[in-house]
Amino acid sequence: MTVQEQLDDLRRRALADLAAAADAAASAAWEHAYLGPKGELTRFLRGLGALAAEERPVAGRAGNALKQELSAAWTERDQALRAADLDLRLAADAVDVTLPGRRPLLGAIHPVTRMIDDLSEIFALLGFQTVVGPEVETAHYNFDLLNIPADHPARDVWDTIHVETDGTGGDEIVLRTHTSPMQARVMERTQPPVRVVVPGRVYRYEAQDASHEWAFHQLEGLAVDRNITMADLKGTLAELARQLFGPERRIRFRCDFFPFVEPGVDFAVDCAICNGQGCRVCKGSGWLELGGAGMVHPNVLRAVGYDPDAVSGFAFGLGIERLVMMQTGVDDVRAFAGNDLRFLRQIARAA
Ligand code: YSA
């Protein structure tokens, strides 16, 4: 075979092999086999030295021309194969971003917390400051300073949950049965005029039903100043009911007894669940009691160092869950602490 025939044969095989290379790895192997340091064309060019002197230039030019042709052919094919490989990998690794993402679960403010915020805002506009106090209380504040001495039968009606003490004979410790102990705590450290509201959780050892929980929330209100009268109390609670429930809800004050007020009243609205017709929430009466209230008893004023001849005051304690019930139509107080997300979502949407 002449040199030219050898080169023609090499060219045909090389181009056929290159055309058959299916991916970047085959292309690299081809380059190694033909153009690499030990490749067939490289070996051919190195072997030119053995040819006769007059054959060498022609064979050299033909060999180098073939090297350039094969190099160019390989570069083009290699780039095409690499691009195809990349396309394949990208397709395999692709993340489908056309589907909608997962919507994160949005939390919402608990209806009782929201009511507390609303109440603070309404009362701020009426001149009341919001303060908070301890849920674990001494009997001194929960009862004694509220005109309920240790041997008084009125203590029994509060269904008190007692906290075990270390037995050293200190004051009796209880879970506060109402937010009223904060009346004394505020007055002890403040001189009149006083206008505060106190939201917070209270506890009672009590059977549960649609309108009674063993742990629930109250909002205490206290105003002490010169010449405060029952009319101020009624006006304040009437305005609150108007703001919370609108002008169409009727309100009712009836005489009631609490040792820390004189006179005392209970405050009710016509039941929003049954529109005053009577249901299990209002126990068939058509009215739901929202709170107790009255004029602060002179003994309570005296116990904190106030002069009942110089100042007077009104106070009230409202059940916050019941306010939400009358506002939203929720017909069971147990739903608020039940932790059923379906209830919470429903009421968050309704608000
Ligand atoms: C009275 C006079 C004042 O000068 C100041 C405050 C008070 C209220 C008094 N401290 C008190 O706790 N009265 S109460 O026992 O009748 O409770 C007040 C309100 O809390 C009730 O009208 C009701 O709305 C709510 N409540 C009472 N027990 C409840 C309850 N809510 C849910 N579950 C219970 N078990």
The dominant shape is: rod-shaped
Average pLDDT taken over every residue: 93
Please tell me how large the radius of gyration is: 45 Å
The level of helicity is 40-55%
Q: Low-confidence parts lasting 5 or more residues at pLDDT below 50?
A: none
Number of domains: 2
Q: Order the strands across the largest sheet as they lie in space.
A: 1-5-6-10-9-8-7
Give the CATH topology of the largest domain: BirA Bifunctional Protein, domain 2
String of helices and strands: HHHHHEEHEEHEEHEEEHEHH
Largest sheet: 7 strands, mixed
Number of helices: 11
Quick tags:
351 residues, alpha+beta, BirA Bifunctional Protein, domain 2, 7-stranded mixed β-sheet, 3-stranded antiparallel β-sheet, 10 strands, 41% helix, rod-shaped, binds 5'-O-[N-(L-tyrosyl)sulfamoyl]adenosine
What would you note in describing this structure?
The protein has 351 residues and is α+β, with helices and mostly antiparallel strands. The chain has two domains: 3-93; 111-350, 2-Layer Sandwich (BirA Bifunctional Protein, domain 2), CATH 3.30.930.10. 41% of the residues lie in helices and 19% in strands. The chain has helices spanning 3-20, 24-34, 40-46, 56-93, 111-125, 139-142, 181-189, 230-245, 298-303, 320-328, 341-350; strands at 129-130, 136-138, 161-162, 173-175, 194-203, 215-225, 251-256, 261-270, 287-296, 312-319. The strands form two sheets. A seven-stranded mixed sheet has the order 1-5-6-10-9-8-7, with helices on both faces. Strands 2-4-3 form a three-stranded antiparallel sheet. The chain is rod-shaped and about 140 Å long. The structure holds 5'-O-[N-(L-tyrosyl)sulfamoyl]adenosine (YSA). 5'-O-[N-(L-tyrosyl)sulfamoyl]adenosine binds at residues 178, 180, 204, 206, 212-213, 216, 218, 258, 260-261, 264, 289-294, 315-317, 319, 321-322, 333.
